[in-house]
Specification:
The structure is a single chain. The chain has 374 residues and is an alpha/beta fold. The chain folds into two domains: 183 residues, Rossmann fold, CATH 3.40.50; 164 residues, Glycogen Phosphorylase B (Rossmann fold), CATH 3.40.50.2000. The chain is built from 14 helices and 13 strands. The strands form two sheets. A seven-stranded parallel β-sheet has the order 3-2-1-4-5-6-7, with helices on both faces. A six-stranded parallel β-sheet has the order 10-9-8-11-12-13, sandwiched between helices. Helix 3 crosses helix 4, helix 8 packs across helix 13 and helix 11 runs parallel beside helix 12. It starts with a strand and ends in a 10-residue tail after the last helix.
Length: 374
Amino acid sequence: MKKIFICAGGTGGHIFPSLCIAQNMRRYNKSLQVIFLGTKRGLEKKILPDEGFAVEFVRARGWDRQLNSRLLLTIMDNVFGFFQTLYCFLKHRPVALLAMGSYVSLLGAMWARVFRVPIYLHEQNVYPGLANRIIAKWAKLIFLSTEESKEFFKNVPTDKMVVIGNPIREEVASWKGLVDEARAKLRLDPHKKTLLIMGGSLGSQIINRVFWEILPHFSPQEFQIIHITGAEDFQRGREKTKEFGFNYLVFDFFSNPGILMAASDLVVARAGASTVFELFYFGLPSVLIPFAQAADGHQLMNARWLAAKQKAIVLEEEELSGMKLKEAIDQLLRDNLSLQREERRLIPDAGEKITRIVIEDLQRRKGFDTLFAS
């Protein structure tokens, strides 16, 4: 059985699009085994094995790009991970590597280049991360989520770049348009406005704190809340459900945001690539609060991209306050059109298209012709 490596790790923004592609590959070609490269510190440790995929864990850490006390630890982890990744290549002999960004992708791509294993790259964000900008020079094909990303891949031939969108998992996409069904399954009132508060796959304490400041200003007779708090604020969130008379659902983590978005009228969220594309797909108005420490400000660029496409208000973290968040929510609520879901022609088949293109390209390479080809 031939094997393909997918490098993805850390947050859901890398993991869930790669999982979508892996699921398509498993359906598309039964003779191709997908193996993930990731770290034990990320969500991949739980999510990917639960989905039935093999994961090889290596030590890797993102570069802080500043001289500080963590630099030595970063160097040690990545050097150790560099040789762990070599072991993975010799053990599994992959015929291709799909890099989804992050520090793990760079380690994998280095050895793929040494062993002449074809590299394919997907960039989820509008502004590509440093790892992907490096890997792009070696990649056979570069899949982009947005047309705007092309300008950031300098000295890369345009015929290597394919604008294809960000993969949305079938279990997420299948909830589109099922408002009544989603609210019934979640035991929500079909007649109340539903606010979804989510700080990315790991939650956001600053979003939680600011939202709880303004929670008393919402009437339980008019509103109901869905809140993904993250693990650290989960217990406090449960206490809030008792403190206020809301229909208030609290989760520390939720693997399928599709049902939550289907049930919601308005979303307060970070601006990771997966979140932004899911909001775009569901046509939901939103208040976006980009993570200020995201590398190269990529969440801010994602948020501005969405705000140019549909109703979204961008609040930068540095200016965030309870008053500004309440004003932004009120502004969207005052607009009679804001709570009408916008119809999207976006078809969530990016994962299927990437799968087909990669496998067909490999087949054109005379049967996966690499140093590892049998």
